[in-house]
Design goal:
CATH topology of the largest domain: Aldehyde Dehydrogenase, Chain A, domain 1
GO molecular function: methylmalonate-semialdehyde dehydrogenase (acylating, NAD) activity
Strand content: 15-25%
Protein name: methylmalonate-semialdehyde dehydrogenase (CoA acylating)
Number of strands: 22
Number of domains: 2
Domain Aldehyde dehydrogenase: 16-479
Largest sheet: 7 strands, mixed
Keywords: NAD, Oxidoreductase
Enzyme class: oxidoreductase
């Protein structure tokens, strides 16, 4: 007799509650196809209850002193560190990442938690004395109210930690909808947040698919939405929520290019390319998916292939170099795109499609795959594959490489490998991409800055952490005041707009 699977709860008003829904989905281990748990698609009443809980909690939370809020996140970062091994193991089981990469996922979120604990210095307003006779003006950065976050499957720890700590630390309350494919590690982080002292109603969690997303976009009490995921869904969220008067930030799809100049440090460039292309089975929105080989760097392809061929594919818990893809459907989509690329004239330099892993006959494994001779117009160039596939294209000069990248509609990240400072300077100045790496293939900034993807990779003008997100999660209120101490001036009527 098959054991009953555990169910993933909702979080409403500080309580983990069983959903009354009739619609469920299995959370599946991508290395084995073993069901791990059942996640509910929350009912409309449950979603409304979560939002109502957040709205009620906002009345007192917004007036909680900044220091008191910050201390919660000091405690949360401690709890995350203490539970790192368990969080990573859970993440690996449900998402497929290697244990080392899973710990990295948690750690990059932890950095934002630490930043949230120091948010007070970024939430200070401005003051100007005597802007007119006896008149002072100052600003307050006040929280918006109930905010919401919609997170993707590929970073089930990091991206929720990008969202709710910054929103809550600035005085908002939050409703989180994790990916229905791998919500287990997210729920463990939420539990730690409650343990750290987040009060009932300040953080709520719902689960679901399209209906849940639309409910968050439509609900009048939601003031802002942060989204990370595909371009298709992100565009829908941005348009629908914006039309409903909400602030929205959407980090979406990408096609990240790395330019390899012939003067680059050969060993470093090749190692970095392979890691950035095939780490996390290519399921990163900042993965390097296109290498632009300039001039003599075209001769490096055999070495690139050899390094990629040496990566070990396996179940994440065995800590290989490359784990499985998230689902059978994701793997099949990548297979289809590679087949289409070959039909359109790409050359198969390394084929990882038939990789087998001993002991895991049902895993969603896809080995490192490299295609050369790729050009714009081919499916493997135009579309985000989101798998362990690196496509190679060529350029005769830096100018040609820059033109190629700037012609691509996406602008999440780009990189250049060179030892020439003038070349690097020209690249960073002329490239039209929001995040640039110089000898750094995945230029995701630390939380002192902000994630600044651009063009087709982002909708909304403010990033999800750092200084920019404080502006996203707060409303600037400007106050102009005058205190009269001259009895003679109190009796005069002034019908002009002057404050003299």
């Amino acid at each position: 007799m098959t054991a009953t699977l555990p169910t993933v709860p909702l979080l409403i008003q500080g309580e983990f509650v069983e959903s009354a829904t009739t619609q469920w989905r299995d959370v599946v281990n991508p290395a084995t196809q073993e069901p791990l748990a059942r996640v509910p698609f929350a009912t409309a009443d449950e979603i409304n209850a979560a939002i109502a809980s957040a709205k009620a909690a906002f009345k007192t939370w917004r007036k909680t002193p900044i220091g008191a809020r910050a201390r919660i996140f000091l405690k949360l970062q401690q709890l995350i560190r203490e539970n790192m091994a368990d969080l990573a193991a859970t993440l690996t089981a449900e998402q497929g990442k290697t244990l080392a990469d899973a710990e990295g996922d948690v750690f990059r979120g932890l950095e934002v938690v630490e930043h949230a604990a120091n948010i007070g210095t970024l939430q200070m307003g401005e003051f100007a004395e005597n802007v007119a006779s006896g008149v002072d003006t100052y600003t307050l950065l006040q929280p918006l109210g109930v905010c919401a976050g919609i997170t993707p499957f590929n970073f089930p720890a990091m991206i929720p930690l990008w969202m709710f700590p910054m929103a809550i630390a600035t005085g908002n309350t939050f409703v989180l909808k994790p990916s229905e494919q791998d919500p287990l590690v997210t729920m463990k982080l939420v539990k730690l947040a409650l343990e750290a002292g987040v009060p009932p109603g300040v953080l709520n969690v719902i689960h679901g698919g399209e209906d849940a997303v639309n409910a968050l976009c439509d609900h009048p009490d939601i003031k802002a939405i942060s989204f990370v995921g595909s371009t298709r869904v992100g565009t829908h969220v941005y348009n629908r929520a914006s039309l409903n008067g909400k602030r929205v930030q959407c980090m979406m799809g990408a096609k990240n290019h790395a330019v390899v100049m012939p003067d680059a440090n050969r060993e470093q460039a090749l190692n970095q390319l392979v890691g950035a292309a095939f780490g996390a089975a290519g399921q990163r929105c900042m993965a390097t998916t296109v290498a632009v080989l300039v001039g003599a760097a075209r001769e490096w392809v055999p070495e690139l292939v050899a390094k990629a061929q040496g990566l070990r594919v396996g179940a994440g818990k065995d800590n290989p170099d490359v784990g499985p893809m998230i689902s059978c459907a994701a793997r099949q989509r990548a297979l289809n795109l590679v087949a289409q690329g070959l039909e359109q004239g790409a050359v198969l330099e390394l084929d990882g499609r038939g990789v087998q892993v001993d002991g895991y006959p049902n895993g969603n494994f896809f080995g490192p795959t490299i295609l050369s001779g790729v050009k714009p117009g081919m499916a493997v160039y135009d579309q985000e594959i989101f798998g362990p596939v690196l496509v190679l294209t060529e350029a005769d000069s830096l100018d040609e490489a820059i033109e190629l990248i700037n012609s691509n509609p996406n602008g999440n990240g780009t990189a250049i490998f060179t030892q020439n400072g003038a070349v690097a300077r020209k690249f960073q100045e002329d490239i039209d991409v929001g995040q640039v790496g110089i000898n750094v293939p995945i230029p995701v900034p630390v939380p002192l800055f902000s994630f600044t993807g651009s063009r087709g990779s982002k909708l909304g003008d403010l990033g999800p952490y750092g200084k920019q997100v404080v502006m996203f999660y707060t409303q600037t209120k400007t106050i102009t005041q005058r205190w009269f101490d001259d009895p003679a001036s109190m009796g005069k009527v002034n019908t002009t707009i002057s404050l003299k």
